[in-house]
Amino acid sequence: MKKNYMEIKFKAIGINEMFARTVVAAFCLQYDPSLEEINDIKTAVSEAVTNAVVHAYPNGDGEVCLRVEAENNSVKIIVSDKGIGIKDMEKAREPFYTTKPNEERSGMGFTIMESFMDELKLSKNGDKGLQVEMTKVFGSSAQTPEIC
Amino acid sequence: MKLKSRLYNGTMYVLLCGELDEHSATHIREEMDKAFSSGIFKQIIIDLSELEFMDSTGVGVLIGRYKKMKERGIPIYICNPSTHAEKIFKMTGLYELMPKII
To answer: What is the ipTM of this complex?
Structure first.
């Protein structure tokens, strides 16, 4: 596929989660993914954006940047914010870990991103905030380990 | 996101319709708690045949309901999950708390 990209910014509020995953799915549809691949991408984007909405801005006022880059047979999705960031990124990636146990959080957000995508990287977004970078290689689902 | 509920023959049936994410979770949580607080029933069956999308927020909502109903000794069962919802349920171990029924 030809190199392509899209980038949008939106307010970090819950109603934009559906918007974000729908926009990314629409962009990716150009590259003829399978239904499972599109669902994996939508879920991973929803997890990353939800993370920014719920955790990044305790005062409730912030912005999320969403960028998708397509090249060869893969898409790289970058979700970034300028919020409070994550102190311990390794801990945050552990299954069932949540900093808000009293809010019925499953603590499975990063685990789902990692499992549904082919690659997941977490880093600081400049001097603060969080950048989530996820890659999906189309046509690689046969290599995905089966979940029993 | 909508919820329909019906009490029949000792079973509370709940149908989830639409997309369950962080934005819709509060509403669905309240609607489920309202449905579960009325009437007398021995079990709950949650039908996901019209659930179009769910992420880990939805898992949190379901686990929250499981904990509340466990205190009352009422089991919850899942039916008609999409392939994608099933993938999330297997990954998170939700079926161990809410078995799937056909």
So the answer is: 0.92
For residue A111 the two structure tokens come to 């685990």
Nearest CA in chain B to A50: B22
pLDDT 10s digit of each residue in chain A, 148 long?
789 999 999 999 999 999 999 999 999 999 999 999 999 999 999 999 999 999 999 888 999 999 999 998 999 999 999 999 888 888 888 887 777 777 778 788 999 999 999 999 999 887 789 999 999 999 976 544 445 4
Interface test with chain B among A43, A57, A144, by most B beta carbons within 10 Å: A43
B29 interface with A at CB cutoff 8 Å: yes
Specify the number of domains making up chain B: 1
Q: How do beta strands A119-124 and A74-81 pair? A: unpaired
Q: What are phi and psi of B80, to 5 degrees?
A: 55, 45
Stated pTM of the model: 0.91
Q: What is the CATH number of the domain that holds B76?
A: 3.30.750.24
Catalytic residue list of A = 47, 51, 105
Which residue range is the domain that position B84 belongs to? 2-101
